[in-house]
Structure formats: C-alpha cells, structure tokens
Amino acid sequence: MRNRNIILLLLVSCSFACFGQEALLPDTLQVPDTTRQTLNATIYNLQSAPAIDTTRKINYWNITQRTGEIIPARPDTFLTDYFNRTSVEGQGVSMAYLGNLGLPAESRVFFERADRSQFLFVDVFSIYRRTASNYPFINTKIPHSNVAYQRAGGRLMREERFRALLNSNFGKKLNVGVDVDYLYARGFYQSQSAKHLDWVFFGNYLSDRHQVHLFVNPANYTNAENGGIEDDNYISHPDYVDAEGIPSRDIRTRLSDGTNQVWNHQKGMQVYLNYHYNLGFERQTQFIDEEGDTIKQFVPVSSVIYTFDYQNNKKSFYGDSTQIADYYQDKTDAFAQNNIIGINDSTAYYSVGNTVALSLREGFSSWAKFDLTAFLTHDFRSFILLNESAQWNKQNQSSIYVGGELAKRTGKILRYHAQGSLGILGDNLGDMNLSGTVETRIPLWGDTASIQANAYLKNLAPTYYENHYHSRYFWWDNDFGKIKKVHIGGKITIPHTKTAFSLGVENLTNYIYFGNDGLPKQTGENIQIIAARLDQNFQFKALHWDNQMVYQLSSKQELLPLPAFAAYSSLYVQFKIAKVLTVQMGTNAHYWTKYYAPGYEPATQQFKLQNEVKVGNYPLMSAFLNCHLKQTRFFLEYYNASAMIFSPPEYFSLSHYPVNPMVLRLGLSVDFIN
Prior knowledge:
mainly beta, Maltoporin, Chain A, 5% helix, globular
C-alpha cells in the first residue's frame, strides 16, 4: 500500500497537464488519482519504483527503446476530455493537419515535436503510430479487454475508428495480448479518405532472474491526396463564389477530382525484443508465508541486457498520371528523357539494431543510490531508391554508438535521470545526444509541489532522406552538415492550485526545413525558440474550467513559423445521476493566433513553408456530452459548432485545408473484466 501511495503521489506531482478529475478505471480497479493522462515523456523516467505494484490488479508500463528499462505508465481510462482525445485536435494543445481523421498531422507547439526519424515520411502519422517505446505493456491478475468505437457523419462522408485490446496473464509471470486499431474515414471533402490498419502483438515475461519484452507491429496507412481546396472562399465567403448550400464534397480540390484519385500508401513493420538477465541475491524479509516460513525477496544487483530492433517501411505515391503531371507542371519530370511513364514513386527502408548493455541496479545496498547502465549499439540501415533509369538502387549505412544512463528513480527529495550516446564508428561518427532531468518535491500549502529542470545537447547527422531522395518530380542529393540543438527548461507543478507552469529555451543551428518548393534546405543561421506553457484548472462546485495555454516565439518566423499563442479551453458542469452515471456537459475550444501555417507536399508527405495564406485567429468550438457508467465511457459531440456562430467561418487547419464542417460525433469505450 505504501509503495502504491508513493507512485500515485509522484504521478500527481509530475503531471504535465491538468488536474482535478477522477481516474476512471473499471469499477473493480478504481484507484484515487487527480492527474490527467497526458504526461511529459521526460517525467516518465522520474516516477517511483517498483514499476510492478503487486497490490494492483492491472499494471501498465512503457520501456526505453535501447535498454528496455521499465517506466510506470497510466492507461487512457480518464473521463475528462475523452471525446477530445479521440479527435486529432486532442493529440496536443494545438494540432495542424489536413482536416480529416487519419491524415498527416504535426503539432503547432514546437516543443511537442520529435526529431525526424530515419524514415521521415512516417513522422506525419506519429499521433497514430505505435512503437515499442510508447506502447503500454500490461501485467494483469484478471483477464482484461477493451473495445472502443467512434463515428461521425453520414454514409457518404462517415469517419469510423474501431480499437480492440485483448490480453491475459498465463500465471504470474507471462502476459500476452493483441491490440488492433482500424480507422476508415471517407472524408467530408473530395479525395480526402484515409484507411489505417495497425496491429500490435505483444508479450512480457517477468521473473526475478529473467525479464523479456516482445513487440510486433505490422501497420498500413493509406490516404487520398487532394492538394487542398481550390478556393478558400468556398468555406470563408461562400456568397462570393455562389457556393451557399453547396455540400463540402462538391468543393473542387487542387489535385484529385473525387473520381480519379491520387494516393499515398505506407506499409511498415517493427519487431522488437528485449531481454534482461538479472544477477542478485535473496534477502530475508519480515513477512511469513502460509506455512510459517520467512519469505525471501530477490534483490537484483546487476543486469545483462540485450535488445533486438528490426524495422522496415515502404512508401508509394501513385494515381492518375495526368492529374499528377498537371499538378506538378512546374516541376521537371526526372524520367521524361527515358520515356518512362506510369511509374509509382516509391522508396523503401529497413534497419536492424542490436544493443548489449550492463546495468548496476539501484537499491541493492545502502551505497547504491542510483542505476548505472552502459551500452553498445550497432545500427545497420538500408535505403532503396530509384535511379535515373527507374531501377532500384540500394544504399547502406552502418553506425556504432556507445552510451550510458544514470538514474535515481526513488527518494523523497531528489530524483534524476541522465543519458547520453556517442557515435564512434560509421555514418554517424561524432553524433552526440546528451539529456537529463532532475526533480525535487517540496511541501506547499498542505500538498507536495514538484520542481523540475531539464536540458539536452544534440549534435546529429542529417537523416539519409534529408540528404537523398529520388522520385519523378522531387529529386535531391544534398550534403547537409550536422544539426545542433541546445535546450534548457524547467517546470513547476502545484497540485493544490491545479497549476502546472513550464518554460523552455532552445537554440537551433543548421536547421533543416522544407522550403516553398518542397525541397529540403539547411540554414547556417542560429534559430532561438522560447516557449512558456500554463495548465490551469478551476472548479466551483459542479462547474469546471480546464485550460492549456502556450506562448512561443521563433527568432526566424520565415524559416520556422509558429503561432505566438495557442490554447485549449473546456468549460463544463459535472454531476451524477442515480449515483452511478457521471455526466460532463459543456463546450470546448481550440484557438491559435494567425501565422503562416505550413503548406503540405503530397508527393513527399512533408510539411513545407508557405507565405501566401495565414491561418488562425478562429476559435474551433464544439459542444459535448461526456459520460461514464460502470465500465463504460461514451460521448456525443457537436463538432465545429462555431461555424454557425462566427463569421466568416475560417475553420482552416492548414492553408487550403479546412477541418470537417459541423457534424455530430459519438464514441464508446467498454472495459471487459472477467
């Protein structure tokens, strides 16, 4: 019980988001908590050990990518904002995307963006993508499954998403499960459909000596490309273009006409295996078993670790060749001189990573105040591109890294986590990635406040695709220099006032971006970004007002455009009916100031600069009814209700990409506990 309370207290103090709500686990698994689900990734490493609380019926945790260290996590079982978290907008304070569920997206908040991955085309699906490091592994004493479904719109424009999780323990040590995520959104505008099929097969075996995690994830993402609508006045000023009453599906788009469509298809797979062999000794405890014998506890002293990580991805851009040629008429056809027609622009990638590590465990002795881990990683990467004759050409990369990790995850006063890696051989020679977080907790107003500081220093080689890409209308071979990032930040969390405030500053050198022409470019200038975030909740009896606000500045808006202010606010009343049905009813809004929001390049699926159209200064409001009954959550939402309140209704997420018009959304999530 004491360990569980410590874990919950730290979760309260470390929450990056809002407070003041009930964690809605199934009724048989209720645990008091006041945190929201969303936690900053750096905070995960500071939560209390042990990760597996034997007093709880279900435990959730994440693992680190290289060494498979267990980091406690919380499932998405919260009622508050459940309807919002099922939308694209709910994946961050402010999201920029192509207007339909399942389409490419990125955060407008700079510090919510991750570094580009080796296969940068899949980054635009990061809010949907499951990886070994962000997936919640499970240990359960009872068979547990969850089914969730959401839907919006009529038959011709309907968007649907179905998710199902089934997992069970076989004994105390072994858990296996399967998790499927199926998304099919036809789109409210021409040629805007999206289809995702994402499977996860996972398992974990935990004993005193052996710790194994297995993660297998085949995924398929397919989406139509329409290039945005031809004339923004169809949305903002329909009377100007005689478009009053015209269905959104009849608005003309720039690339596809709704009949002959253009598509992007991505197919990927990750197979991940992590194994720990723990060395240690048995220690007598004060507990007695049923036979009257003293219970012995295994104390790990060190761990030998091995990690295998295989990934492959393939991207194809295809469709009506005439439409594509018309859309890219200002581009040079790379294969025209060889009279090659009808070819799909494709590229493929695969990588194999092997890591060996040795770890000294925290707590086995009074002098062992921290975990200390050293690792050696070999990464092999292969990239397959087209050459001038439209034949496949393979290029390989190989890199060796050494690194280490220092972490103190227990203690009432001070906790910290630091890690670093250095490329010592191969294509990433000289790459350096150092990061650290330190946290302390102080008594304040009868509660415990958390104060954090975090920093990182990165010197990273460009990804292969930032330097090289070959397709029909986009062809580049660059020799970019290393990207340098220096960041320092801090955060204070005060549960008593339901307040979390953070401030971060970053300096970027040799920043790589995609220009107006859709080609990658690198600037030698320094770019400074500063961002302050405030999460503040208010409550007066049944009335709740939850807020997330971000103020950010970019010293080079022409290269790295960001909205100066972005916010999410939710005003609602919460009450119970017959003591079993929890009801939240109210309205919410997403808002950001006007700025030159990114353009989007369909052929490469990258967000790029544009300086023609500003987007923003429009509150995207919705009305909602959000409920919880026993082991079920469900909602009704009237999405984009602001379109009938504000004029002009400029509900654009990106330039030429409006979000869905007013529509009724519904969703349901049911936990099945045997």
